[in-house]
Amino acid sequence: MADLPEHVRRNRAYWDAVAGDWVESGRRAWAQDEITWGIWDLPESELRLLPDVDGRDVIELGCGTAYVSGWLARRGARVVGIDNSPRQLETARALQRQFGVEFPLLLGNAEDVPLPDASFDLAISEYGAAIWADPTRWIPEAARLLRPGGELVFLGNGALMMLCVAEYENDPIGDRLLRSYRGMHRFEWPDIEGVEFHLGYGDMIRLLRSSGFEVLDMVELWPRTGAESPVAYVSADWARRWPSEEVWKARRLAG
Ligand SMILES: C[S@@+](CC[C@H](N)C(=O)[O-])C[C@H]1O[C@@H](n2cnc3c(N)ncnc32)[C@H](O)[C@@H]1O
Questions:
Q1: Measured distance CA(240)–CA(139) in Å, rounded
Q2: Ligand 1 and 133: CB distance under 6 A
Q3: Residue 69 near ligand 1, beta carbon < 6 Å
Q4: What is the whole-number distance in angstroms between the Cα of residue 251 and the centre of ligand 1?
Q5: pLDDT tens-digit profile of 182-204?
Q6: What is the 3-state secondary structure (H, E, C) of the chain?
Q7: How far is the CA of 112 from the centre of ligand 1 (A)?
Q8: Residues 105-148: tens digit of each pLDDT
Q9: 51 alpha carbon to ligand 1 midpoint, in Å?
């Protein structure tokens, strides 16, 4: 623990403390047959962001309650989940037992994964390492773990939204930029103990390319007509005009 970077130690304490709040939403997601993306519940059958995972090696970086891993394991993937929070992994193990889907779950930092180079075909993160680990560390680590041709797919908050969200999570979002885009990286909030990371678009593209990836896509997720926001920090009206969530998709180049 003492040798972990400061933000990883803080995020472990934060996620251990809030893990109990995520058990029921994790259970509901595990119970779902369909793969869906993000707070707007957009079906993978429409977005088609994932490669065929049947018989493929997949790692979920910051798996939390591991429902994404569960969805992929049921589709024939050989999945490994890694997460920094022992309490989140306890939930994941309980849900594995409840739903009868078992795969290895590792306690660890997605920025420094104790697994060999080139052992996976897909690295995925849904609000895991994608926003809670330092991208300058976890993205090169994902590149190391992937085989040439393997894909990295990750979902997080929209960069633009991170500049507009209120200082306190329960306050409404506005249509004004509250913070600088230039150099955006580490985010801390007065009412949340954890540390988040969000990059601007150019910085993300350069980081992916310098880590050995070819950028395939960046898909903004838009709420459907009539959808209501399930979270306090962004409204559906806002998210219809500006991207509240983004999925990045990149392919590991050879060499
Ligand atoms: C929003 S939750 C996970 C999302 C997952 N899809 C779910 O909803 O259960 C974020 C997770 O990232 C994990 N996490 C944070 N920093 C991490 C790190 N450096 N390495 C691995 N996992 C990390 C947290 O412990 C937490 O379980």
A1: 29
A2: yes
A3: no
A4: 22
A5: 999 999 999 889 999 999 999 99
A6: CCCCCHHHHHHHHHHHHHHHHHHHHHHHHHHCCCCEECCCCEEHHHHCCCCCCCCCEEEEECCCCCHHHHHHHHCCCEEEEEECCHHHHHHHHHHHHHHCCCCCEEECCCCCCCCCCCCEEEEEEECCHHHHCCHHHHHHHHHHHEEEEEEEEEEEECHHHHHHCCCCCCCCCCCCCCCCCCCCCEEEECCEEEEEECCCHHHHHHHHHHCCEEEEEEEEECCCCCCCCCCCCCCHHHHHHCCCEEEEEEEECCC
A7: 14
A8: 999 999 999 999 999 999 999 999 999 999 999 999 999 999 99
A9: 22
Instruction: State in Å: Cα 201 to ligand 1 middle.
Output: 22
CB-side neighbour CA atoms (13 Å) of 23? 13
CA distance 178 to 175: 9
- Closest atom of ligand 1 to 134 CA is 19
